[in-house]
Amino acid sequence: MISNEANLVLVGVNHKATPVEIREKLAFNQVKLEASLEHLVSCPEITENIILSTCNRVEIYARVDNTDLGIQLLKDFICDYHGLTRGSLDQYFYSYQDDQAIEHLFRVSASLDSMILGEAQILGQVKDAYSTARALSSTGLVLNQLFEKAFNVAKKVREETGISERGVSISSAAVELAKKIFEDLENHSVMLVGTGEMAELAAKHLISYGVKTVYVASRTYERAASLAETLNGCALDFDAFKEELYRADIVITSTSAPKFIISKEMIEQAIHKRKNKPIFLIDIAVPRDIAPEVNDLENVYLYDIDDLQNVVNANMEERQKEAENAMEIIKEEVTKFNNWFSTLDAVPTIVEMRNRAEEMRKIEVDKTLKTLSHISDDDQQAIHQLTQSLVNKILHKPTINLKKKTQSQDGHVYLKAIRHLFHLDD
Amino acid sequence: MDKISFNLSLFSYLMASLGYFVYLAYRRPMVSTFAGWMVAFGLVCQTVTIGIRSSQTGHGPYTTSFEVALFLAWLMVVVYFLTEWKYKIKDLGAFVIPLVFVVLLFSAFLSKETALVPESEVRFWLTMHRTLSIMGYAAFSIAFAAGIMYLIQEHQVKSKKLGMMYFRMPSLEVLDDLNFKVIMIGFPLFTLGFMPGSIWNTQMDLPFFSWDLTRTLPLVATWLIYCLVFFGRMIVGMRGKKAAQGAILGFITVIGTYFLHII
Fold first, then answer.
1. B149 contacts in A (CB within 8 Å)?
2. B237 vs A314: CB contact, 8 Å cut-off?
3. 3-state secondary structure of A52
4. Do A269 and A243 form a contact (C-beta atoms < 8 A)?
5. Which residue of A has its CA nearest to B232?
6. Residue contact B240–A311, C-beta within 8 A
7. Most CB atoms within 10 A, among A124, A179, A197, B79?
8. Cβ contact (<8 Å) for A275 and B27?
9. Is A257 exposed, middle or buried (0-12, 13-18, 19+ CB in 10 A)?
10. Cβ B237–A275 below 8 Å, yes or no?
11. Minimal Cα–Cα distance from B251 to chain A, Å?
């Protein structure tokens, strides 16, 4: 039988097929997680394991002696540990082995399996899961290599595809636009006209990207003052904001005014005062606060809530397209990793083959030396060395070729043949 | 030997241009690194070509129309490298290097032997005029590329159709700033180039300034366009789209002037 030392399995549930009511029951918190890792690694069938538990998924990656047994064991463990019976839960579990498990982990780390494609959080969660497991010594050669590789793949996907560069929320799309108009937001200012919740959120987002100067204007001065205080800005009188418009590089409006409060003429004046420095207007109000003709002015960029929503939708579609490019990268990396992974299968066979040859060599040399009692110790030593190097020379090429062949698709055939030819399984 | 190095540089710029296009479309960092090295290699080869030719002819690369184009392409790459180093806009290569390639390819069809001005008439002031003007043109070519990039990006943001280019290209502010900076360097060089030209004219017993329809007038038109962009920016804050359009129009006039010149 072929050595089963390097079987990789994955058992889990995720947001795609499992409702939150089930996922929350199966989740491992930090305390449970550590105890579980220790418990699993003490099982004789499991050599290494890592548990990834987030709000969208619970997955156990393990290296086991026997694939089928390992999968059943992990499913049972997840259910038993949470005091649940497996029967009704069985439909939610998915399980993968070897290259499929590798691909799944790479997809998860690169955020292709996330609810919001390309979100950055998941990579941090996978890293945490790995370092917890590593600290408890529940990982070894295979999982260490696999997870380190997964982090590299995630980085590569992030750098080489646009999967996470397009904002998929209104405020992140607005910040992106601001950065495409102004580059560095640090020396730029934002003016809030109206104190709507979404405007506040967008302003906070802009501040987190470096905007330092904030003006707030509202019909009720107190509200403006209180929001200005939270944002570390300065409150303006509502009547005064029109005069002060030229100071702002970014204007976010969110008043409940029934008519436009910012006209083309007002922006024309502001832009003139600004010596044509660009101005980015974000109109989150419904009904709108800014006359749409404003966008016809040069160096003025006006986006209303629908425009931003369209940007978000387009970005989501783009991320979907980028995911296809990302899959190509992942497939390539899975093949590379799998090549390394399958050489592990060859190692025990090679060791056994060499041991068998050495045994035979010893028996035969000893037999011969008994009949040659007249030769000196030095000569005996020389005969040993000669036969040893003969064996090494003969086995050298088969060893190299076997390592190479195990990386190919029909690698197992070669392993089987070697084991058969050398009587390794007798 | 100079033919080999010339062809090598031509080939390198072609490969680099293709590399930058691929990078623009597919964003593979390795491809942009490759393109960068190809440009560097092309520059080295081109420097060798200029060196060999100069040692053969005994003067700098500004006598025949071939040499002028060769020198212009060389300076464009130098300015491109300086810009890339300062601004780190990798996609600029996709706009500048193809232009370099075209200039260099075009130069291959130009006369390598006939001097634009008989060698006996070449004086220090003519050399100054040529060197300064070509340096100005090289700067203008970068402004042209930045202007095109600005218009593409501006169109995306304005029309609210944010395509691939929107994400690939730098911000409007950076492109506008680049456009301005290179014109700020190029325009004074170009203007300074006028003076020695006129001094040389007087040395040759030509009028200080002539209203020659094919030679001088287009040059004056070019100068006026850049002058407008330059002072428009400083005085009335002409920026963004208009400045980009100015840089593009200016460079088109430069090309037009050049053709009128060699005809």
1. none
2. no
3. strand
4. no
5. A275
6. no
7. B79
8. no
9. middle
10. yes
11. 23
Residue B174: its chain A contacts at CB < 8 A?
183
Out of A181, A310, A325, closest to residue B171 by CB = A181
Interchain pair A181, B241: CB under 8 A? no
Contacts of A303 in chain B (CB under 8 A): 160
Q: Does the domain formed by A170-313 have CATH 3.30.870.10?
A: no
Closest CA–CA distance from residue B248 to any residue of chain A (Å): 18
B123-263 has which CATH code?
A: 1.20.120
**How far is it, in rounded angstroms, from Cα A76 to Cα A84?**
9
Return the residue matching tokens 């290179």: B182
Q: Are B129 and B200 in contact (CB under 8 A)?
A: yes
Task: For domain A7-160, say whether CATH 3.40.50.2300 is its number.
Answer: no
Domain positions in chain B: 1-115, 123-263
A43 noted as active-site residue: no
Q: Do domains B1-115 and B123-263 have the same CATH topology?
A: yes
Of B26, B157, B240, nearest to A276 by CB-CB distance is B240
- Catalytic pick among A43, A55, A79, A234: A55
Tokens at residue B215, please?
A: 């030679």
Express each pLDDT in A348-397 by its tens digit. 888 888 999 999 999 999 999 888 888 888 999 999 999 999 999 999 99
Most B CBs within 10 Å: which of A157, A158, A160, A183, as the mutation test of the B interface? Answer: A183
ipTM of predicted complex: 0.84
Rounded to two decimals, the pTM is 0.73
Bridge partners of residue A320, in order along the sequence: none
Distance from CA of A204 to the nearest CA of B (A): 21
Question: Mean pLDDT: which of A95-109, A197-211, B48-62, B112-126 is highest?
Answer: A95-109
Q: Is the dihedral of CA A402, A406, A407, A412 positive or negative?
A: positive
- The total number of residues written for chain A in this structure: 426
Q: For chain A, what are the domain ranges?
A: 7-160, 170-313, 342-421
Report the alpha-carbon distance of residue A198 to residue A379 in Å, rounded: 91
pLDDT, tens digit, 9 for 90 and up, residues B173-195? 999 999 999 999 999 998 888 77
* Residue count (chain B): 263
Phi, psi at A8, each rounded to 5°: -110, 130
Q: B22 to chain A nearest CA, in Å? A: 12
Cα-Cα end-to-end distance for chain A: 10
Helical axes A98-109 vs A121-135, angle rounded to 10°: 120
CATH of B1-115, one of 3.30.70, 1.10.4100, 1.20.120, 1.20.1250: 1.20.120
Report CB contact under 8 Å: A307, B160.
Answer: yes
* Spatial distance between the Cα atoms of B226 and B216, rounded to a whole number of angstroms: 16
Across the A/B interface, how many CB contacts are shorter than 8 Å?
Answer: 58
Place of tokens 């300074």: B192
Collapsed DSSP state (helix, strand, coil) of residue B151: helix
Residue range A220-235: average pLDDT?
A: 89
A307: which chain B residues are within 8 Å (Cβ-Cβ)? 160
- Tokens 């890293």, residue located: A127
B138 near B76, Cβ under 8 Å?
Answer: yes
In this structure, how many other beta carbons lie within 10 angstroms of the beta carbon of residue B259?
10
- Residue A174: φ, ψ to 5°: -65, -40
Contact A299 B240 (CB under 8 A): yes
Q: Is the Cβ of A316 closer than 8 Å to some Cβ of chain B?
A: no
